[in-house]
Please model this.
Amino acid sequence: MDRKKGTALVVGGGVCGIRAALDLAEYGYGVTLIEKAPYLGGILSRLDHQFPSNHCGMCRMLPLVERDQAIPQCLRRNFHHDNITVHLATELVSVAGSAGQFQVLLRPKSRWIDPERCVGCGLCEAICPVTVPDDFNGRLSHRKAVHTPIPHAFPRTYWIDPETCNRCGECTRICPAGAVRQAYPERRAFRIIVVDDELIMRDSLQEWLLDEGFTVSSAASGQEALSMLAGNRFNLMLLDIKMPGMDGVETLEKAKTVHPDLCVVMMTAFATVETAVETMRTGARDYLLKPFDPAVILPKIMRIFTDQEDTTGIKIEVNAIILCGGTDFYHPETGKNPWGYGCYPNVVTHLTFERMLSGTGPYGGKLVRPSDGKPVKKIAWIQCVGSRNSQLNADFCSSVCCMAAIKEALLAKDKSETPLETSIFYMDMRTWGKSFERYRNQAETMHGVRMVRERIHSLVQDTVTQDVMLRYADRKGMCREEPFDLAVLSVGQRPASGAAVWAKQMDLTLNSWGMIQGHAFAPVRTSRDGILVGGSCSGLKDIGESLIYAGAAALEASRLMHAAGGSLQRHPGNAKQDIDPLAEPRIWITVCWKSKDLADTVDEARLTHRLRHDPALGGIDFCYPAPDQGWQKTLAVDLRARAFNRLLIVNGQAALSETDVRGLTRLLSMDRAMVYFVDLSSALFFQGTFERESAAIALERALRQGMAYLKRVDPRAAQLVSIQQQAVVIGAGIAGMTAALAVAEHGFPVDLVETAERPGGHLQQLERTLSGCAVQPILADLMDKVERHPRIRLHCQSRIIQAAGEVGHFVSTLADREGRTSRLSHGVTIIATGAQEAKTCSYGHGNHPAVLTQMELEHRLHSQSLNLKDVSTVVMILCVDSREEPRNYCSRVCCPTALRHALLLKARQPDTAVIILYRDMMTCGFDETYYTQARQAEVIFIQYDLGNKPQVETGDDGSVNVTVFESIVGRYVHINPDLLVLATGLAPVFPTELARGYGIAADSDGFFQMMDSKWRPVDGPQEGVFACGTAHSPRLIPDAVASAQAAAMQALKILSHDSLSPGKVVAKVRTSLCVLCERCIAACPYGARMVNPDTEQVRVNPVICRGCGNCAAVCPNGAAVLEGLEKGQLLAMIDAALS
Amino acid sequence: MRIREQQGHMGNDDLGPVQEMVRSCIQCGTCTGSCPNSFAMDYTPRTMWRMVLRNESEALFRSRTFSLCSFCYTCTLRCPRGLPLTAAVNALKQLSVRKKVDVCRHSILFDQCFLESIRRHGRVRETEFMMLYFMAMKNPLLPVRFAPLAWKLMRKGKVSLQIPCRSEGRLETLFHKTAKRERIP
Model:
């Protein structure tokens, strides 16, 4: 595919970073993705099982169309996309410039193991003498200083942790590939000068530094130092402040005039610390405090050394920057109340518990106690550790811990060999998302997870049994003490360690808790233009929401790049394909050796002679590419002279990667499927031994296998689907309008269909949000932009009455007010039909004037038709008909709305008594602070249970009687409110009549059914249809906007091409052989297969299928086949491997 | 406001400062769970704070809950809302003194006699303190109840039988100033 001109930088390689990078790359921009850890995946590389399926589904993020641009394999192990450059172990140093044109400096951390040379043999790990607790496994297991950063890494590249390495050099000696280089030559070249008038100081420092391998000189006075500086180059000066004659401050000034770049570290006794701090303003980098402790000063000097090593950073220019730095977690041991964490072994955080459940974790997936290895029989989860805590300046909810705890409880029950008792101690169970409430009910009723609405104040350990004793007061006030084998702390979010630094570097606004502050109505925009924030960096989110925010950030970045002309083609037109894939197979083999020595171990002439028998072989080359940028071109020029149409490349430790091979394929303008790549690096060094015989055999086998593949490879190019580059957006609320505008601003025509008289949706009735932002100006601005945009055709009072088609070419029939119909032909559809307030007859609504719904109250407050003088007591009942069958979901908006109304009533008339009857307050994220504010404003909150709902009696005299059980004081209370407000929640408005035409469906609650709730959060089951706003799921305004932007981004990825190809390897069904046993449907990990009820045949959705071959393996009749990788081909490869 | 009319007879202002202290309570029960004396209380601390917020002062001052607080500060340390619970209990205790709440009579008298002894001598004179307490309690059987303990203490020389002479109170000024600051008539 042709690259577009625009470029973006994505900071953070967690799932959000990957999502944002993929979104932009699939649209065609060039993306640089950096991650400070030496691996991708962020926090999710530690979590193996995700709600609701308890599987990992990360690979579902990979491109569905044009998927051959990415490696269609496990994303946790490896990641490649043609348009994405990944820099691991790299940090952002500085950002200059402005939106559309940023100059960015990136700094790779010094790697002591060359990832391109490392073959993953593990010899270094075996010999390394340093053993430290493994943070990746929550310190439950140990690792060496040299280790693989993640257990599932592929290729298994090792990494030396510079903090713990003792630099013994054993790994350098044993590495068979020469990949370990601990920078000893560089250290020798690093010259340090020690300036101190005391001989003993100079000598001890000199000795320590020489031991570390540096080159050290010393000077006894300022003058001597300056004269030495004049003639020599030094990298670092250690300078004492108090010296006779010229003192340190003066020496520093003079030295800086001669060598402005010289790094100077002051040495000071305690008395002159202030002077030392002062010198840092005049150019000193740091100061060391006497008396010296080598354990303190050596790491500081090592840091300066590595920093200077690294200053040869990478400078790039980008149009936009997306920050996906994720979040950090609360460390209980640092707080006033540590809940025994850090002193009792059987108290773990929920991240550590996830590692305990993992097969690659400290106990191999066995559920045993850390203290004594006994099987765990009883676990308690303690919620809100470090969240919802004003004492810790954490007056927020971390949003994900409740669901995480339920998931972990179910997973633990599943993994445990013996019956397991699980209890969750919570304050409010926040099941705010789509299908969360049902999941919770199932956990409680079907799986027996015990939920206790109590907060654990602290815990102690039984000295004999090492059980964890939990003491809590139950509702009746009885104090109970209960032993558990294991206590899991659901630790809350904290700002990512880099957030404060970024805020300084890039001049961003942080919120009161140190998270990056987004715009109130466009949450991915930061206070600086061109810098976007995605994922949990602006507050913890679950996977689905994070990816929505990542997609939204990608869209905003794309909008900026497009405006700056970034959508123009970088390489116009494709080079002519002079290699004919359809001709007789002619295979050329290129074996790339790292060095001549290595090549000499294989008898090339003999090998060529043996392979010559195969008529398909065109010839063999042996080469030694130098590891620089130009070798691909040289190789391509060399190969152009040969006659061949299929290519076999062998990597004999020549540091070739998939990315290089793809680059070469592009240069040769060949189809990647016609190139077979064998990586022999690991095989040649199996177990670290290199034997001539086995190496020759391994090489020949690999070559024969590759030839077998290439001879039978399907030479036809993958089929293309043409794309109608137009979009239809159904529903013109804030989500629909946002999505439509985003698509139109990228230059594609949009038809925006709305049933009402004017666009705007429900927001027209809303004055302010909970955070106090005025809604109407924003809405008016958006409506104005939509109405004026030349590429948006707004159809009000119209509806789509009929639809058909699939991705690329949908046909919809539009009917206007008079019933006139017209045809719309479009490539993608975005559903934004919204939701409406659910109607109710409960609690006397409809029979009594004092009983209102939230919307009715909103209307009366808005229109000033409510006389507050007559209102002295207001009761609000939350969760009316919600969170119970048949509407068993949380509507998300009612709790914040109730708080907003309560605060508004209190502000207008402080004497009004406001009583809120709630089941669980769902004030997730930073809305929690308004809950606290409401309590402080004397709003009374009374919790009720589903089994004991409030009773409402309405009298003929106009009175309303509310009776509710107040569980804290343990008796019923009676209230006579003047106004009873019911929060009935949202009911979806889903275009059921169009579902079939667009290939979409409603979920059990009538909202949009997603392809995958976590990994494809806005995509429908069929590619090309997306949903956003409240039609997708109940959501607040910022979330609705973000979902609209994410949906628009997904749509744009399709619209940006005039034709698309699904993957080359796709499953097919031979219907004549199929007996409809449906084993393939169960086996498909991507949900690409289904039985078509009309034809009674198994159908494969080619866009979703990834060609894994599971279906072909389970099919008893050979009816499931993989097109592009057929049986004969595979069997021939197996034969070749066994020959 | 009707909800308030249905409860307690005391004015808002009495409990107002205490309510202000515990306003953002979320009834999580951490205070109850961590209270070492909760077993002896008739209402748990959580219920008590709820009653404070609900203005149920009559029932509140009938209960022994707040008078049993031994100022261990565990609830203050643990409270996730960071509320000054121990200070709030102290405020309730002071309120009960001012209101001369019956349930707290014993402890109020005990404290008063204790302070009286300190005021007179600058330290506690145990014998005098006991005499004052017994007289204030107006219960002739009370000394009999304490007799075994008194005997034990006297044998060990912990309590001297000498009747203290009424000397000039050295702390008179301090007490005077404190009373002025706390506006005790």
